[in-house]
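User: When convenient, might I ask for sequence and structure tokens for a protein?

AI:
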Amino acid sequence: MQKAAETRAKIIQQAAGLFNQQGYAGSSMSDIMRVTGLQKGGIYNHFNSKEELALAAFDFAIQLSSQQFLEAIRGKRHAIEKLQAMLQVYRQFVDNPPIPGGCPLLNTAVESDDAHPALRDRAQQAMTSWRRLIIRIIAKGIAKGEIHANADPEAAATILIATIEGALMMSKLYGNEVHLERAIEHLHHYLVRELRA
């Protein structure tokens, strides 16, 4: 049983990098067989469909990303410090992504829209979880007097996520980190000037 679980985990890990780089639609069963080193039957022993594998691979990729954010904020006391630490994680995504291909949430959200509703729903769940974490940090910061009492946690979460994800997309598209650097610098100013109490 342990060997089956190890094989399944290996398939998920290798497929996650493939899907994140080539997309769900752009990854054929032949591609999956190539990266896993397994025949089609070996893959279908563990997954009923390509979509089931894609969902498991997305969950794996998001878990890796989430671990980086949680490690970055661990030990930070002040809400602004936590948010700044999260921005630094994004800076690392360009040169050292948690999974090949960059941000799995951005990649999946862009690809899945109406074409792949199950993947879109999973991406939406991951985004909701990400937004809730930021909202919680800001709300606690307000309660502790670290963030302005009139700050809107939901609006701030939208500003932070939309700015950084958009900058990641531009940096990836142009092959130039300057877009991400500009966004991070702008958001640092936003956190200190607009949110810090």
Q: What stands out?
A: The mean pLDDT is 89. Residues 57-195 form a domain with the Tetracycline Repressor; domain 2 fold (CATH 1.10.357.10). The chain has one domain: 57-195. The longest helix spans residues 117-143.
